[in-house]
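Late entry, magnesium ion complex.
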Amino acid sequence: MARDGAAYVCQSCGAVHSKWAGQCSACNAWNSLVEEIQSRPPGALAPTRPTKARGLVFETLESHTPAPPRIVTGLEEFDRVCGGGIAKGSAILVGGDPGVGKSTLLLQVVGEAARRGAACAYISGEEAVDQVRARAGRMGFGESSVKLAAETAVRDIVDGLKRERFDLVVIDSIQTLWSDMHEAGPGSVTQVRAAVAELVRFAKSRGVAMLLVGHVTKDGQIAGPKVVEHMVDAVLSLEGERGYPFRILRAAKNRFGAVDEIGVFEMGDSGLREVKNPSALFLNEGGERAAGAAVFAGVEGSRPVLVEFQALVAPSAYGTPRRAVVGWDQGRLAMLLAVLEARCGVGFAGRDVYLNVAGGLRISEPAADLAAAAALISSALDVALPQNCVVFGEVSLSGEVRSVSRADTRLKEAAKLGFGRALAPSGVAETGAFRVTGVARLMEAVQRIGEDTWT
Ligand code: TYD
Ligand code: MG
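Prediction complete; structure with ligand written out below:
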């Protein structure tokens, strides 16, 4: 039996359990339950009412509220992902694995915003002020007007912020914060939620935009950003594969802009560099395109992006062949292999299959199916696709190739980068000198690639 007032809270999803268990029954995470004291303000069993309750007041939907003013930082990739700058008074959570570059990105954001006249603060609970200053100096913000502080107590942070007039404040990170209203330790679900709630309230009431850093954790030692996603206006995640310099900022939720928008950066010696034309970067430049490679003409958010899918199909040395995938969905690969086997007669039994998206980008568009399939077919049959060919299209379980949105955007980007041919769903129109090989079924793609006939 738990002590009075104690409960076991899952640090990954926030579910509350009365007993300890090895696995959270809500999200299935292992070893994520931690005992936390659920404290209430003394004497307050019912939710407290604000002292000046004015009752429920209705307004009409047609009232003309102007769009919130935006802080344009000038870091274009970041501004676009936010929906055209950071909305005043909004709270934005920036999540990502430790070491991916969240602190670097946000220091750059306030540095650039300050250059454009915004009053900015960077509050770190992880690094000393000297450390942050040294990093900013290396990144070219040595003379910046950004105010720095090292603090973890939410009450002190909010009191301090109230004394000044800031437009934009970075809190790095939410897992280091603690509020004296709760007994649970820093980094626990209770503390992280309470701290973020207080900061969001402050942001809304004062019109100060807040950028909150949240580490994504896999082991459940500290509360993940998931437990506060519902409280903030936007959730951005910074992603990157180990060993690649590229970092992708992606909007997973945005009350002030479109989701699925991406910003692309490259990590260098002096911070993150914006990548304005990602297609050129993700493509394997020069050289012959080998068997097993297919260039996918994708669209991420509002932007077309060309990336190379690389597949290797090789005889397996093990009883159970390996299926490994980087940058794409494992389940989707299994489905494609099954469709290729059942509908097209391309066998993968006894063969290892490796599929990789070049450059460290993660692709989730269904339109990538045909590109992944083309790479797999090309490797399985050991026939390379034409050098100047891009591929897109969705594949269904029946082996049909379905049309996808924004075909013209994809073709235009491909033409711009010197491609002259596409393997695409039937019905996609040819434009100018750009040749389109339309396929209605995956089997037709297998025949085309196998026979190497491209008219
Ligand atoms: P950081 O922003 O501290 O990551 P996070 O806040 O997400 O934990 O970035 C840490 C990594 O970035 C670290 O491995 C060093 C690297 N880095 C550079 O390569 N160049 C730079 O200019 C900076 C500031 C960091
Ligand atoms: Mg950091």
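The first helix runs from residue 76 to 82. Will revisit in the morning.
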